[in-house]
Every structure is written in C-alpha cells, then in structure tokens.
C-alpha cells in the first residue's frame, strides 16, 4: 500500500486502522506508531459486555420479538392501531446490526418506548405470547439502555466529525472510564459487571507508547493543555522538549558544514567580498554556539509562553490556532504539526469506501477506476 501511493517510511508518523485481525497482524512489527480506531475500540468494548450471558439472553429475546413483527404485516398494522389508540408515536420497531452496537441500543430503546403498545398487540393474538420478553429480560434491557445512552453520544459525535484528532482520545477516554463506567454502590450487580467489562477492555486497547503519544498530543492541543493530564507537569514538559529537539534538525533540513569542506566561493570584489566572508564566518560561529542546551532552554521558554496563553474554545480548530502562532512558537508548532495530524478514528476513510461502494452499483459495474475516483472525489467534496 505504501509503495503504491509512493509514501516514504520517513514521512510516516502513525497509522490508524480498525482492530481486525489482519490489520493487527500487518502492523504488529510496524516501526512507527499504530493506533486502533477509537470508535472501533468503543464498539468492541460494548460488544464484549453484550456477550455477558444475561445481557445476551435479553438482546436475543428483543431481536426475536422484532423479527416476529417484521415477518407479519398484520402484526405491524395492529401495532400502528394500538399506538394510535394509546396516543403513542407511530414508530416501527428497529432491527439491529450485529457489528454495530449502536443499532442494538436503538433496537432496545425503541422496544422499551413502545412496550405498552407491543403488549397490547400481542395480547390479542394468543399464539404469539411467547414473543414477549420476560420481566427479567426487560429489567436487563433497561439497565443496558440506561448505560448505553451516554456512550451513544460519544459514538455519534466521533462518527459525525471529519477531523477527530488524536488529542481528543485522552479527554474522552478518561471521561468514559472514570465517570460513566465507574461502579457506584447503588448500581445493580449486573450494571457493575457491565461497567467493569467495558472499562477493562477499553484500558487494554492502547499500549504505553500509544498512551504517551496521546498525552503529548493532548498537551499540545490549545483546547486542553494540562487540563486532562494526570502526570506531573515537569514530566510532560521534558517529553515535549525531547520531541522538539528531535524534530528541529529534520525541520531545518540543513546540516552543519564540516571543517574539511572547501569554503564557498564568495562573489564580489574588494570590501564587498571581505564583508561576505566576515558575515559567513560570523554566521557559522553563531550556529556552532547553538548547542542542545541553548535549544532546550528555547523550547522551555516556548512552553512557558504557550501555557500562559488562554485556551481556545472546544469548537475551534487547533491546527488553525497553531498556524497563527507558528512564528511565535516554532519548536512547539513542529510537534503540533506532527501529532495533531494523527486521526483518532478511521470512520472518515471507511465512509469513503462506503461512498465508492454506492457509486459502483450493479447498474454501474462497468465504470473505469479513473471515473470511480473522480465521482468519489466529487461526492465527498461538493457539499
């Protein structure tokens, strides 16, 4: 893939993919940072909780009920009549997709909201009473729905945005694991188990190396800075200083000229020629005086200035902020350019594959690759 797109390994910072087995196998020895899609990680954690026996039984019962209505137009018509009689919104039941936990949540939420009309519909048909879930299953669905409601907001937000950068993972992950999935004393035992399973699975999805990069990206984001970091300030500052020192030679693209190299020929005559030689010598001496210690002090001064500036609102673009402060904070701007380009989720790229799949339909299967590329580009950008 990298060879086909002529991407050099030296230009790579990170690769973000889903957590499919083939992806993990492909990038397990990858020299650069590999990140699993945050949306996929959240989906896997919730799917693991859905496999708990009591939860799985309740979800199957709800799915069986929905299938019972979808296979009978008479039953669907009777449901609409009962909804109208009870002054309830006339909404159809929702099928879930096994690979998307959000659809399972919507299926359960729709069943719970229409439970009264569903019971009234089934009561008039004795042969289908078995379709109604048991009280124990309904109790499980209520607990699962209550917990999933807040998580669905994060899934919808991450999937709807097109520029979800790595810096947002740390705040969102901390809020989910330390607020939403914290076990309370008054929680039922099943809710505690669901929270524990989700929390442990989410925390195991990121390596220590990935967590360190996430912390640095959060620090360099002017929306967050130190707000969501749980480690001492000197530790993250030292890490940023080391990263800035590593990026400085690569950014300038200039290597100091060795003493054995022949001097550059100076143009001009007389005093002009001597002045150019003096200026060149003075410039070389200044470059030699820029030791790592001097550069390190410069980076630390930039960090002090950066922390003294006011944080920007959450809805503003951090990359746009850095474009305006690149001349004032050049070392930190290099770190921001490197880290804030890393996507936290692979949803936008997967959405492109879905768009191209709709374009190459059975009725347009003879489209040439060049035409598909152009149509996909127009579909994505002409909005």
Short description:
With about 375 residues, the chain is an all-alpha fold. It has helices spanning about 20-25, 40-50, 55-70, 75-85, 100-115, 115-125, 135-160, 170-180, 190-205, 210-220, 235-250, 270-290, 290-310, 320-325, 330-340, 345-360, 370-380; strands at about 15, 35. The protein is about 65% helix and about 0% strand.
Show the helix and strand layout.
Layout: E1 14-17, H1 21-27, E2 33-36, H2 38-50, H3 53-70, H4 73-85, H5 101-113, H6 115-123, H7 135-160, H8 169-180, H9 189-203, H10 208-220, H11 233-252, H12 270-289, H13 292-308, H14 318-325, H15 330-339, H16 347-359, H17 369-381
Parallel strand pairs: 1-2
Helix pairs in contact: 2-9, 3-5, 3-7, 4-6, 5-7, 7-9, 8-9, 10-15, 11-13, 11-15, 14-15, 16-17
Q: How many helices in DSSP terms? A: 17
Helix content: 55-70%
Distance between the termini: 29 Å
> What's the shape?
globular
What is the radius of gyration computed over CA atoms, rounded to a whole number of angstroms?
A: 29 Å
H/E topology pattern: EHEHHHHHHHHHHHHHHHH
Which strands sit side by side, in order, in the main sheet?
A: 1-2
**Average pLDDT over all residues:** 83
Structural class: mainly alpha
**How many DSSP E strands?**
2
Strand content: under 5%
pLDDT < 50 runs, ≥5 residues: 250-266
Largest sheet: 2 strands, parallel
Structure description:
By secondary structure, this protein is mainly α. Among the domains are: 169 residues, no CATH class; 35 residues, no CATH class. It is built from 17 helices and two strands. Strands 1-2 form a two-stranded parallel sheet. Helix 1 links the parallel strand 1 and strand 2. Helix 5 packs across helix 7. The longest helix is centred in the middle third of the chain and has 26 residues.
């Amino acid at each position: 893939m990298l060879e086909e797109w002529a991407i050099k390994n030296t230009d790579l910072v990170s690769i973000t993919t889903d957590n499919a087995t083939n992806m993990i196998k492909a990038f397990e020895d990858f020299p650069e940072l590999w990140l699993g899609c945050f949306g996929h990680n959240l989906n896997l954690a919730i799917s693991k909780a859905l496999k708990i026996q009591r939860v799985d039984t309740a979800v199957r019962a709800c799915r069986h009920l929905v299938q019972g209505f979808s296979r009978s137009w008479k039953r669907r018509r009777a449901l609409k009549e009962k909804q109208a009689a009870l002054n309830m919104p006339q909404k159809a039941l929702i099928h879930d997709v096994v690979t998307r936990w959000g659809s399972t949540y919507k299926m359960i939420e729709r069943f719970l909201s229409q439970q009264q009309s569903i019971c009234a519909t089934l009561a008039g048909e004795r042969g289908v009473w078995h379709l109604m879930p048991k009280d124990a299953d309904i109790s499980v669905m209520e607990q699962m729905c209550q917990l999933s409601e807040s998580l669905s907001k994060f899934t919808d937000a991450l999937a709807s945005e097109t520029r979800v950068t790595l810096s947002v993972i740390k705040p969102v992950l901390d809020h989910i694991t330390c607020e939403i999935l914290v076990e309370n004393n008054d929680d039922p035992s099943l809710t505690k188990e669901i929270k524990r399973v989700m929390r442990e699975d989410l925390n195991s999805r990121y390596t220590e190396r990935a967590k360190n990069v996430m912390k640095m990206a959060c620090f360099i984001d002017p929306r967050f800075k130190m707000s969501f970091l749980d480690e001492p300030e000197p530790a993250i500052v030292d890490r940023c200083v080391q990263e800035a020192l590593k990026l400085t030679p690569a950014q300038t693209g200039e290597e100091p000229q060795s003493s054995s190299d022949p001097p550059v020929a100076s143009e001009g005559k007389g005093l002009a020629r001597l002045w150019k030689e003096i200026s060149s010598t003075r410039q070389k001496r200044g470059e030699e005086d820029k030791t790592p210690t001097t550069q390190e002090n410069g980076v630390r001064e930039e960090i002090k200035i950066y922390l003294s500036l006011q944080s920007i609102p959450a809805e503003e673009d951090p990359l746009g902020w850095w474009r305006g402060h690149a001349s004032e904070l050049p070392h930190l701007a290099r770190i921001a350019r490197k880290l804030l380009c890393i996507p936290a989720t692979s949803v936008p790229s997967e959405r492109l594959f879905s768009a191209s799949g709709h374009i190459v339909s059975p009725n347009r299967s003879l489209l040439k690759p060049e035409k598909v590329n152009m149509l996909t580009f127009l579909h994505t950008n002409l909005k």
